[in-house]
Write a structure and sequence with these properties.
Length: 681
């Protein structure tokens, strides 16, 4: 049986001990109550303290530590004692929300059990990363049936459903695990609910799921963007074994798994985690960047660094700080078979670092932030060359997607928020935004800025993730609203209003899924979910997407599925080739061409309030020949009025294309190869 060694970075500490906690409560109090045993640790290079296996019989038996709660008792540089968790922990105790040392007022008093604890405040726990629980629904620490990692992953892939390997082939579904669970009346969703959703996702046709952060974070529930432990999967969301089952089931169904990660800040309440880990001196707060000396500022927090995101910037200049983030991503690749990552607010890491006291830039923090991102992407590409690396970035800097040996950051793609602002828009009128859906939702017949939107669409052909909606737009912004509500200015979705809302909403997946960008949409858009998805009350606003699919959202679901199927069936739609053929602001029409090799398609989309029995598109990019209508959003099966091109074939002569066009509506034409031109109809 192998032994076990514990290590921790505490360069300013006078002394460090490993302390075991009570397995029933899973908690060690700040005054030391709950400590069962203390073992010495010894200082090594660069301030890393480690246990010595030879000094303790218990350390010579790894099995005796299985799910044993532990912490580090650190005597800091000023002599004070702090109890800190293991930042490299693969498991944090607790599936509840209570912090015994600082009880949460809205929750019942702590019941004394480990299950009732909030993970970022409880003990760390030892777990064997090389085995997986065979049974999904067993409660943590009661697992009785285990599989080796080799046996568990043996039948991970199915040849008839290959997982996409190119980033341009992705159709991404952003999923918040905790927002599920309504089908079993759960207090919150878990990864088990996400596993049960996979048949629904397979029917929808998406081939990639992007999970909002699932590593341990502050609070009992949330969006996950306040991470505390980057290697521990949040137990209240299902824990590490359920995540492995989810990834395996996704891969069996041809679905890649992308994980949101946050490196721009730590959890906001970092007591027992990164905060003042081994020193009470702000200048020596080792996990946080501090600029200068505390005496230089009116208040001690003046030297911390704001980074344009939230919270204070990590100390990227420390190799061990960078290594924590890098090794956590590497572990997620190796242990969980994650296919890619989306990094939150990358410009906050390499560009926006500013001193808290006066807002002055901190160039060194920016430089080391860029260094970290390059090291991160280089390491992950070395481990898995085809890993998907996506940056949330709103700077417009092309270097984010350039190779690191060309002074870039090495990402494959960036989120493109400006596309959303042109397609949907915010409630605040902004002349630099097309705001197509919001303006159409006002019900007027005024022109829409189709040209501005067309420029945005054409600009997404260089590796940009374009989204109809994301978690931010569905619930984080001040004017948050679901797309179907925006489409009718929040009017009640009854009768003709519902029909018209769906007709307008179909414009969005039509141009997004068939455009040159990498498409993404937030869960629920495909069935017309209506409730805002705010971070503080999403549990009260969850919707049952499978139930909506069988009722009011059936037509939208079918349209999304058919458009996705069209994109994935034709390489032309997954190429970066795009040409804007035509825009007309007054008529609210855009047409663009998508092609590769012998495939040639034209997408014509309208946000007009009425259709045209005969409408002519004129462009030098239209090839002569015969074109067949292969999709029309106004088809009756989607709830439309059947305003389609009867007979299905249209001729283009002299760069003119005359067709029937619904308003609102999206139609797709495919050029028939090697066919003579027909006379116009």
């Amino acid at each position: 049986m192998p032994g076990i060694r514990f290590s921790v970075w505490a360069p300013n500490a006078q002394n460090v001990e490993l302390v075991r906690g009570d397995p029933v409560s899973g908690y060690i109090w700040n005054d030391g109550r709950g400590v069962v045993e203390a073992l010495p640790m010894h200082r090594g290079d660069v301030g890393i303290w480690s246990t010595d296996v030879a000094e303790s019989p218990t350390l010579r038996n790894f099995g005796s530590w299985d799910f044993v709660p532990y912490m580090f008792r650190i005597t800091r540089d000023d002599g004070s004692v702090a109890y800190r968790t293991d930042l490299y922990s693969r498991c944090q105790v607790g599936t509840g929300g209570q912090n015994p040392d600082a009880p949460v007022a809205k929750l019942p008093q702590w019941d004394g059990t480990r299950q009732d604890l909030e993970g970022s405040k409880s003990c760390s726990a030892v777990t064997d990363p090389e085995r997986v629980s065979e049974l999904l629904e067993q409660i943590m620490w009661l697992e009785t049936r285990w599989l080796s990692g080799e046996n568990f992953w043996r039948d991970e892939f199915r040849p008839e459903r290959p997982v996409p390997a190119r980033i341009d082939d992705l159709v991404i579904y952003e999923l918040h695990v905790e927002g599920l669970g309504l089908d079993r009346s759960a207090a919150r969703g878990t990864l088990l609910d996400a596993i049960n959703l996979i048949p629904y996702l397979r029917d929808l046709g998406i081939n990639a799921v992007e999970l909002m952060p699932i590593t341990e974070y502050q609070g009992w529930f949330g969006w996950g963007y306040a991470p505390s432990h980057h290697m521990a999967i949040k137990s209240s969301a299902g824990g590490r074994d359920q995540l492995k089952h989810f990834v395996r089931e996704c891969h069996r169904n041809g679905i890649a798994v992308i994980l949101d990660v946050v490196y721009s800040h730590f959890t906001f309440d970092a007591e027992r985690v990164q905060w003042m880990y081994d020193s009470a001196d702000p200048e020596r707060n080792v996990w946080y960047w501090y600029d200068g000396k505390a005496a230089d500022y009116r208040t001690p927090d003046g030297g911390y660094v704001d980074n344009g995101s939230s919270g204070w910037a990590p100390r990227y200049s420390q190799a061990i700080v960078r290594r924590l983030f890098i090794s956590s991503a590497a572990a997620l690749l190796a242990e969980f078979h994650i296919d890619g990552f989306r990094v939150e607010m990358t410009q906050a890491i390499y560009r926006d670092n500013a001193r808290h006291a006066d807002g002055q830039p901190v160039p060194a923090a920016n430089a080391f932030g860029a260094k970290f991102l390059r090291e991160w992407s280089n390491t992950l590409k070395l481990i898995r060359p085809n890993v998907f690396l996506i940056a949330e970035n709103h700077s417009g800097w092309r270097g984010v997607r350039q190779p690191t040996d060309q002074a870039g950051l090495g990402f494959d793609a960036t989120w493109e928020m400006s596309f959303y602002l042109h397609l949907i828009g915010t409630a605040q009128a902004e002349p630099r935004q097309a705001r197509l859906l919001r303006e159409a939702g006002m019900g007027h017949d005024q022109p829409l800025n189709m040209r501005l939107f067309a420029d945005s669409l054409a600009g997404t052909a260089d590796g940009k993730v374009v989204y109809i909606s994301s978690h931010d737009e569905a619930g984080n912004a001040q004017d948050s609203a679901r797309s179907i509500q925006v489409a009718v200015n929040n009017a009640a979705l009854l009768g003709e209003t519902r029909r018209f809302a769906e007709a307008r909403v179909r414009f969005d997946p039509g141009v997004t899924l068939l455009g040159p960008g990498i498409p993404l949409f937030f869960m629920g858009e495909e069935v017309g979910a209506t409730r805002p998805y705010r971070y503080n009350d999403f549990l009260e606003n969850r919707e049952d997407y499978a139930a909506l699919r069988s009722s009011s959202g059936a037509r939208l679901f079918r349209f999304h599925a058919d458009v996705i199927r069209l994109r994935l069936a034709h390489p032309a739609f997954r190429s970066r080739n795009v040409a804007i053929l035509y825009t007309h602001d007054n008529n609210r029409i855009i047409a663009f061409r998508r092609w590769i090799d012998d495939e040639d398609f034209i997408v014509v989309a309208s946000l007009g309030n009425r259709g045209w029995p005969s409408y002519t598109i004129d462009s030098r990019h239209i090839r002569d020949g015969s074109w067949r209508e292969v999709m029309n959003s106004d088809a009756e099966e989607y709830g439309g009025g059947g305003f389609t091109n009867k007979g299905g074939v249209i001729a283009s002569l002299g760069r003119h294309l005359t067709l029937r066009l619904a308003g609102p509506g999206v139609l797709v034409l495919q050029r028939l190869p090697h066919a003579p031109a027909l006379q116009p109809v």
